[in-house]
């Protein structure tokens, strides 16, 4: 709970400090890259949470990582602030809330599509256009292939899910048959 509050506050502060909308997406990508480094290297969390490691070494590592990732100056400043305040381990929540702020400011929404087979670029574009028309926002689509779905697609926009997979239809049919037998 407190992690969510911390993430939200820092994300809002960062979003409010960025006046140009054109900088929001690159900053988000910088934050995601930094988070990916944390996810890929679990020892980073141990390093930053260890009380006996001097703050200078922690800040030096932040600067080194930021340099390798070529992050924007505003992101480096945030990361150093997080390091100083011992909140850098909240990077995942900060990224999550910052992404929501970016989407809101840019009037866009993210959609996740799972399908049994890869979707063609034409299908993705048709889906994007249809969703954009319905939602009145720019739609960013992330696709995943899940062969266990057998066929069809599952679409997730925010907390809404539309499941038109064969796997789901079979499960619904099974439930219906069980009810009729009982």
Q: Explain this structure to me?
A:
It is a single chain. This protein has a four-stranded mixed sheet. Helix content is 63%, strand content 15%. It has helices at 2-17, 24-40, 42-49, 55-69, 73-84, 91-105, 121-135, 166-181, and strands spanning 108-115, 138-145, 152-157, 160-165. Helix 7 links the parallel strand 1 (108-115) and strand 2. It starts with a helix and ends with a helix. The protein has eight helices and four strands, in the order ααααααβαβββα. With 182 residues, it is α+β, with helices and mostly antiparallel strands. It has two domains: 2-104, Peroxidase, domain 1, CATH 1.10.520; 108-181.
Fold topology:
Elements: H1 2-17, H2 24-40, H3 42-49, H4 55-69, H5 73-84, H6 91-105, E1 108-115, H7 121-135, E2 138-145, E3 152-157, E4 160-165, H8 166-181
Helix pairs in contact: 1-6, 2-3, 2-6, 4-5
């Amino acid at each position: 709970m407190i992690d969510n509050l911390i993430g939200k506050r820092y994300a809002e502060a960062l979003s409010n400090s960025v006046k140009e909308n054109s900088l929001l997406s690159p900053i988000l990508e910088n934050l995601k890259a930094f988070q990916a480094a944390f996810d890929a290297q679990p020892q980073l969390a141990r390093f930053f949470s260890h009380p006996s490691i001097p703050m200078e070494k922690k800040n030096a590592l932040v600067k080194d990582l930021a340099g390798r990732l070529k992050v924007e100056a505003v992101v480096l400043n945030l990361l150093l602030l997080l390091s100083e305040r011992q909140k850098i381990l909240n990077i995942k929540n900060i990224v999550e809330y910052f992404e929501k702020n970016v989407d809101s400011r840019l009037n866009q929404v993210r959609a996740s599509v799972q399908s049994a087979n890869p979707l063609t670029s034409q299908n993705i574009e048709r889906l994007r256009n249809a969703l954009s028309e319905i939602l009145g926002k720019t739609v960013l689509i992330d696709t995943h292939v899940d062969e266990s779905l057998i066929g069809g697609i599952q679409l997730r926009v925010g907390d809404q899910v539309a499941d038109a997979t064969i796997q789901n239809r079979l499960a619904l049919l099974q439930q219906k048959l069980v009810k009729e037998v009982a």
